[in-house]
Design a protein that fits this description.
The protein contains three helices and no strands. The protein is mainly alpha-helical.
């Protein structure tokens, strides 16, 4: 693999990571307002999806891959409005 290709893949990886966190923050803001059934469902699905991916990556890479904490952060941020909405 050439140097340029490596730089593109590395850059895409970092931009994707920032996007995950940005998405989690968007869900946190959405959840700070009145939760409708639709937004509650989106938050639940996001929490479960990213939480499951995080656990899978943690176990399959034995914690050596940097992605699992990022997926966990998205899951936690998505769950926060649900916990506070009780």
């Amino acid at each position: 693999m050439g140097r340029g290709t490596r730089r593109i893949i590395r850059g895409a990886w970092h931009l994707t990571s920032v996007t995950w966190i940005g998405g989690a923050l968007i869900f946190l803001v959405i959840g700070a307002n009145n939760l409708t059934d639709a937004t509650r469902g989106i938050l639940v699905l996001t929490t479960l999806l990213y939480g499951s991916i995080s656990v899978y990556l943690l176990l399959s890479t034995k914690g050596r891959h940097v992605a699992w904490p990022l997926f966990l952060a998205v899951s936690v941020f998505s769950a926060m409005p649900l916990v506070g909405a009780g």
